[in-house]
Write a structure and sequence with these properties.
It is built from five helices and 17 strands. It is an alpha/beta fold.
């Protein structure tokens, strides 16, 4: 398969995971490492990067035109998949995973493979907790909700206070960037930023390191091929947690 060209796949099942999140299952399996992403082509709309939540699924939350179109699709609809791309998570020993919202999607394959010991999962409400039952089958799960409807009443990052980070060889993180930046700040304070692995999301055009649209300041690292997963020490003193760039290249706050 030429990974530079989209492969047409047919959606064979749509699952409503939460009131705002859908999982689309397609009729072709892709070999990938947890944390890698694919470029998803929505005909007539756009092509966007998305993490694989399994070898045959993507998990989507509506945040723009392309994701709205994906959430409106049903069985028999067709999309294009290009990839997988990027480096994914690389773990050994005891692993802690921290996810907020739909950020649980790229971490699910890691947990499903039995490589996560403790999983911290956050969402706005209990109804929005993504993959909680599936994660609980393979890892020790701790949850937090903004409104207190399940687990800890507050942010998922506050659950880190209940753990000894020295117990973990790797801390894998995905979710809203402000949440991830808080985790990185905690790791830096504990002197273990290098043990963190953070899955970044940036605007992408090519997905293969040519166009430069996903480069992050100040070193020009390309999220599509140098990432999307970066070690915490690599992100210190970068744009991470401060700003990103839109399709025109202008900075926007994260």
């Amino acid at each position: 398969m030429d990974e530079q060209l989209p492969v047409g796949v047919t959606i064979c099942r749509v699952a409503a995971e939460t009131p705002s999140i859908r999982t689309l299952r397609f009729d072709r399996a892709f070999s990938f490492r947890p944390g890698q992403f694919v470029m998803v082509w929505v005909p007539g709309v756009d092509e966007i990067p998305m993490a694989l939540s399994s070898c045959t699924t993507i998990t989507v939350q509506e945040v723009g035109a392309a994701t709205a179109a994906l959430c409106a699709m049903g069985e028999g609809d067709r999309i294009g998949i290009r990839g997988p791309f990027g480096n994914g998570f690389s773990v050994s020993g005891r692993v802690l995973a921290v996810a907020g919202g739909v950020g649980a999607a790229p971490l699910l394959p890691l947990a499903a493979s039995g490589r996560v010991d403790t999983f911290l999962l956050g969402a706005r409400t209990a109804a929005e907790l993504l993959f909680a039952d599936r994660i609980r089958e393979r890892a020790s799960l701790m949850v937090a909700t903004d409104d207190g409807s399940a687990g800890h009443h507050g942010f998922v990052t506050q659950l880190l206070n209940r753990l000894d980070l020295a117990d973990f060889d790797h801390i894998c993180v995905c979710g809203p960037e402000t949440m991830m930046y808080t985790v990185l700040s905690i790791l830096e304070e504990e002197g273990c930023a290098e043990r963190g692995q953070f899955s970044l999301h940036r605007y992408m055009k090519c997905g293969v390191g040519i166009c430069g649209s996903c480069c992050i300041d100040p070193h020009g690292l390309r999220v599509c091929c140098d990432g999307p997963v970066f070690s915490g020490d690599t992100l210190l003193d970068s744009e991470f947690g401060s700003y990103a760039r839109d399709a025109s290249g202008l900075r926007r706050l994260v």
